[in-house]
């Protein structure tokens, strides 16, 4: 089968590989129908994910059809259409039992697919702990509608859940990339009084205006003043930082009102500085990143009910045979790209 493979720093290649087989009684083999390219794939390509193993098939956001299951798998069966979770988790350890599946203590837990073990930008993928990692796609929900359930939408849903948003709140979301938009969709379900999106990219701002006209938008340079003018208590009640650069890390606390919640969703390349003397008395509550992707069943239901629609994020689609072109487009942010889908 064809599999897009991480060879060495800077080099991915579409290669012929053997079809995966069941290695454990809790595994499933999934025939991938649709995969997507994520910015974490680019982090692997650029060598900034040290635990990524050269030779692995990349891709950790995909949907497909169950082909084969191990003897201990009970929740899914061959023929089921499923989403695949970015995280591998056992479902049994202390952290899994408390919903902190990102911190699963199993030696195979955490971000494994497309990083430490073969992922899904391929025709088939082996999914460990299939009862945890696979969720059935409801009838009436298409592959394209379900594509982001296991990764970027899971992140947006988790970030919203931990941010304790109330109806009288002004919520600031910094960054309108794919994860920022998924976060926006989940924040909208909480019906806060105002949502402000801060983004510097013109085409992303245009995407927000087109699809979510009720959302206020602002550039990073004007963000602080704008939030002050458009909030009731001298700043945002909740800030979600999804952009992940030093300037947006600073913007997050600067735009927050006293006693606000600041949720850090982004992954940074380097340590960030909290200027505590300047922040003294602001009494902020910080929540830091690392998605607990354990609400996929709930988000699939919200999609089935028409309450979440991530399909407009798929701006480009390529067959697996031309995946390199999809990467080139995504990496260079050409042609207004938000997300690229790969038909496997
Ligand atoms: Zn990802
Ligand atoms: Zn666990």
Automatic annotation (TrEMBL):
| Limits of the Alcohol dehydrogenase-like N-terminal domain | 25-138
Show the SUPFAM superfamilies listed in the entry.
GroES-like, NAD(P)-binding Rossmann-fold domains
| GO molecular function terms attached to this record | oxidoreductase activity; zinc ion binding
**Cofactor(s) this protein requires:** Zn(2+)
Q: Which Pfam families match?
A: ADH_N
What are the UniProt keywords, alphabetically?
Answer: Metal-binding, Oxidoreductase, Zinc
Highest taxon in the source lineage: Bacteria
The family annotation for this protein states: Belongs to the zinc-containing alcohol dehydrogenase family.
- Any idea what this protein is called? GroES-like protein
Q: Which organism is it from?
A: Holdemanella biformis DSM 3989
């Amino acid at each position: 089968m064809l599999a897009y493979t991480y060879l060495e720093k800077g080099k991915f290649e579409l290669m012929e590989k053997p079809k995966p087989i069941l290695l454990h009684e809790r595994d499933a083999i999934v025939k991938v129908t649709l995969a997507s390219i994520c910015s974490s794939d680019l982090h692997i390509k650029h060598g900034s994910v040290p635990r990524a193993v050269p030779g692995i098939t990349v891709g950790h956001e995909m949907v497909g059809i169950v082909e084969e299951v191990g003897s201990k798998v009970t929740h899914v069966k061959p023929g089921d259409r499923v989403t695949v979770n970015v995280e591998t988790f056992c479902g049994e350890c202390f952290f899994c039992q408390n919903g902190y599946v990102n911190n699963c203590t199993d030696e195979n837990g955490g971000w494994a697919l497309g990083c430490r073990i073969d992922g899904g930008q391929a025709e088939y993928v082996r999914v460990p702990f299939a009862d945890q990692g696979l969720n059935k796609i409801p009838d009436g929900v298409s592959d394209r509608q379900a594509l982001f359930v296991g990764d970027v939408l899971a992140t947006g849903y988790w970030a919203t859940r931990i941010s304790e948003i109330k109806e009288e709140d002004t919520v600031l979301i910094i960054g309108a990339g794919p994860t920022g938009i998924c976060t926006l969709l989940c924040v909208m379900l909480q019906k806060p009084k105002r949502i402000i999106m801060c983004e510097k990219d013109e085409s992303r701002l245009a995407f927000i205006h087109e699809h979510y006209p009720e959302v206020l938008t602002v550039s990073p340079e004007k963000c602080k003043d704008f939030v002050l003018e458009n909030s009731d208590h001298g700043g945002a009640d909740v800030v979600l930082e999804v952009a992940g650069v030093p300037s947006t890390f600073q913007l997050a606390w600067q735009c927050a009102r006293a006693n606000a919640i600041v949720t850090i969703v982004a992954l940074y390349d380097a340590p960030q500085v909290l200027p505590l003397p300047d922040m003294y008395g602001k009494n902020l509550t910080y929540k830091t990143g690392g998605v607990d992707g354990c609400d996929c069943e709930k988000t699939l239901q919200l999609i089935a009910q028409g309450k979440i629609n991530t399909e407009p994020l798929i701006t480009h689609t390529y067959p697996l045979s031309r995946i390199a072109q999809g990467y080139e487009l995504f990496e260079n942010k050409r042609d207004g790209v938000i997300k690229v889908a790969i038909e496997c």
